[in-house]
Amino acid sequence: MAKTTLYLLLLVALSGCSPSPNAARVADTVVSKASTSPMSEEQATAYIYNGGYRDIKGLIRDDGGAWHGQATKGGRTTRVTVDREGAVTSG
């Protein structure tokens, strides 16, 4: 969460705007709410695609909010998982 807060503050700094005194608190709130919201299938697909996988199919969300399916990378089809934080694992 701290990296995201720093990133948001950096964007404000680079934009030439002055952040309000509570900008970090607002950024933390936005990140916190985003991380507690369930990830959509489209978001999970984007994470998998950005991980270098193609031909993504069969995505199903489990009770914990992680997505599971199949995808192809380097010509090999494998099972993939995207956790609630967006980390993609295969195997």
Q: Based on CA inertia axes, which overall geometry fits?
A: globular
Low-confidence stretches: 29-34
The class by helix and strand makeup works out as alpha+beta
Number of strands: 4
What's the tally of helices?
A: 3
Query: How do the strands line up in the largest sheet?
Result: 1-2-3-4
Distance between the termini: 27 Å
The Cα radius of gyration reads 17 Å
Percent of residues in β-strands? 25-35%
Note the main sheet.
Answer: 4 strands, antiparallel
Mean pLDDT, to the nearest integer, reads 78
Helix content: 40-55%
SSE pattern, N- to C-terminal: HHHEEEE
Structural description of this entry:
This protein is α+β, with helices and mostly antiparallel strands. The chain has three helices and four strands. The protein has helices at 2-15, 23-36, 41-50, and strands at residues 54-61, 67-73, 76-82, 88-90. A four-stranded antiparallel beta sheet has the order 1-2-3-4, with helices on one face. α1 crosses α2. The longest helix has 14 residues, at 2-15. It is globular. The chain starts with a helix and ends with a strand. 11% of the residues are buried. Mean pLDDT is 78; it is low at 29-34.
